[in-house]
Amino acid sequence: MTATATRTGLTLSGVTLRYGAGDTLVTALDDVDLTVEPGEVVAVAGPSGSGKSSLLAVAGALITPTEGTVAIGGTDVTAAGPARRTELRRTGIGYVFQASNLLPSLTARDQLLLVAHLAGRVTREHRDRAAELLDAVGMTAKADRRPHELSGGERQRVGIARALMNRPALLLADEPTAALDQQRGRDVVALLAEQAHARGTATVLVTHDEGLLDRADRVVRIRDGRMG
Ligand SMILES: Nc1ncnc2c1ncn2[C@@H]1O[C@H](COP(=O)(O)OP(=O)(O)OP(=O)(O)O)[C@@H](O)[C@H]1O
C-alpha cells in the first residue's frame, strides 16, 4: 500500500448505476458523490427502494457502476480487472450482514480463523489477532461456542470481529441490526463505531432505523438514487 492508500477510505465520484434498458430502465444511483474517511462511520438512511443496497454493492466492488469511479483504500476499483477486484473484496473489505451468516458447525473463534485459513495458513499471528478481536467485541468467554449457543446480538458481535480479521480499509454493514431489538441494535452499532474509530476502518452502515443514526459520525440520506 502506498502512503496515499493509508489515508483514504472510500470515495465514490459521480456514481450512476442503471439496471435494465428501455422501458425497464431503473436509475438506482444517480450521480452520487460520497467520501468516507478512515475511522469514520457514515450511516446511509433512506426508504425502501431508494438505492441503499445498490450503493453497498457498488462500494463493495460487487457491481461496476454505469458511470463514475469507486476507490477503496486508494485503489480505483472501477479501473481494476476482475482478478484485482476479487482480491480487493477479499482483503480490503469486511462485510457485516443482516443476519450474522456464521457457519453453524464452527465455534466463534474458528469463524475468525476460517478467514485466515481460506487465505492460506493459520499462523500464531492469526490466532493472536482472533483472540484480540474476540476480546474487543466482548466474546472471549464464549469463544468456544457455536452460533446456536449464542444470542442474536452475540452472533452479530462475532460477525463484526470476523469482518475485521483481515484489517480491511473498508467495512460495509447492511442493516446489521435487522434481527435485533432496539437496545441490542444500538449496542451493535456502538460496537461498530468503537471498532471503526480504534482501527481506522472506514465504515458504511446502511439502516432504515432512525433510532440508530445518532451513533454514526455522519448521516447521509438517499432518495430515488440521489444523495442529499
Ligand atoms: N437487479 C435489479 N434489476 C433491476 N432493478 C433493480 C435491481 N436491483 C434493484 N433494482 C431497483 O433499483 C432501485 C434501488 O434498489 P435498492 O435495492 O438499491 O434499494 P434499497 O434502498 O436497498 O431498498 P430496501 O430498503 O427495500 O432494501 C429500486 O427501484 C429497485 O427496484
Q: From the helix content, strand content and strand pairing, which structural class follows?
A: alpha/beta
| Distance, first to last CA | 32 Å
Number of helices: 7
Mean pLDDT across the residues is 92
At the fourth level of CATH, the homologous superfamily of the largest domain is: P-loop containing nucleotide triphosphate hydrolases
Helical coverage, percent range:
25-40%
CATH class of the largest domain, please? Answer: Alpha Beta
Topology order in helix (H) and strand (E) letters: HEEEHEEHEHHHEHEEE
* Share of residues in strands: 25-35%
Contiguous uncertain segments of 5+ residues? 1-6
Which labels suit this protein?
alpha/beta; binds adenosine-5'-triphosphate; Rossmann fold; transport; six-stranded mixed sheet; globular; ATP binding; transmembrane transporter activity; 2 domains; disordered N terminus; nucleotide-binding; ATP hydrolysis activity
